[in-house]
Amino acid sequence: MESDKLFLALIPVLGLLINVASHIAINRLGLLSQLKSIFVCFGIGAIAVLLMVFLLSLSCIGIELLPQLILNEISYGALGYGYFHFVNLGETARRIRIIREIFDSGEKGMSEEEILAIYNAKTIVNVRLNRLLNNGQIILKEGKYFVHGTPLMNIISSIMLFLKVLLLGKKSEFD
What are phi and psi of 93, to 5 degrees? Predict the structure, then answer.
């Protein structure tokens, strides 16, 4: 019975490991874009958590399915959220990318002009617009960009803004 309780407590961590392993596999195989693979793999981990809780509740007397499922899914969600930002930090944070570029240049180093040639505002905006176009989040019509389909990133950004105001009392670091 103690081992069942320990396993129950570790289910969100196991779900995260499944999320990470599937994310690595999908990325290495090149099956989905980075953003889609993060969401798909988060779903795979959430389903794994659901199945593990369900199977454990069948085999253990005294484990109530719904409360355990809610608790484990919320815990997994928090871990998955942290993983999303870990991946996002390495992919999009300019400071990290600039440090990586300078490190990769080795003993040669990089001048400010070389860094600005890679990271000027126009280049950054073009890269982000191309990513949004490739992910199907926006479309280009007659020289103008429009949100395409369900504005998932708008929903996510609205939730993040709400949480920032709720938890930090401000909308950005400039407030």
Answer: -70, 120
